[in-house]
Amino acid sequence: MNKYEAVIILNPNLSTKVDDFLKDFDKLLKDNSFSIVKTEDIGRRQLAYSINNHNKGHYIIFNLEGDPSKLLEIETKIKYNESIIRHLFLVVKEHSSEDSSLFTESKNKKPESINEDVKVESKETKADESAKTKGEV
Amino acid sequence: MSKYDLPKNFDYKNTDALRPFITETGKIIPARVTGVSASNQRKVTKSIKIARFLALLPYTDMHQ
User: Which residue of B lies nearest to A45 if distances are taken between CA atoms?
Assistant: First the structure.
């Protein structure tokens, strides 16, 4: 038995189908005698660079326990799952009992729709400002 | 206090804690500049590289 920390980045267009994915993934893990200790659904997040032409990704972090020999089968399944744009399994000595900083960050963040509106507004104001400065010049 | 203080528990998920250790262009700042001990610098480096793979931190500022 090893303890794992898994980070999975899902296609942001499938954000609404996360529950289905979690069910499927749960089944896949159980079939391979893995147990989920904790799940952190972080949600959509801006990627630092684009992966497969996606600028955002839906992050999910799992704390898992299971057998190393079975991990390979899980990874091959993940590899051919097109809704997953990136994944990483890390072996850890101990699972942290606290929430990860990403999770707390996402909880504190305002709902995304509001943020997007703000972004659009700020862009417009910037455009206005640049137009003004040009006019002055 | 220097700006390169290490928090008590930092890992690849805590990008705010790692950001002081990369330059504006995304490079990892060497230990001779940060003044962090060699073993801590190795931990920082490893965390940054994992965070880069997960697109939490940039590899460079030239990403399209």
Answer: B56
Chain A residues closer than 8 Å to B63 by CB: 48-50
Task: Mark yes or no for CB contact B53/A86 under 8 Å.
Answer: yes
Residue B60 lies in a domain: no
B13·A61 Cβ contact <8 A: yes
Confidence band of B50 (pLDDT split at 50, 70, 90)? very high
Write down the mean pLDDT value for chain B.
87
CA distances from A75 to A68, A89, B32, B51, B60 (A): 11, 9, 39, 20, 28
For domain A2-97, give the fold.
Alpha-Beta Plaits (3.30.70)
pTM greater than the 0.90 cutoff: no
Half-sphere exposure of A54 (CA within 13 A, CB side): 22
Domain boundaries, chain A: 2-97, 100-137
B5 CA: distance to closest CA in chain A (Å): 18
* CB contacts, 8 Å: B49 with chain A: none
| pLDDT-flagged residues of chain A (< 70) | 110-137
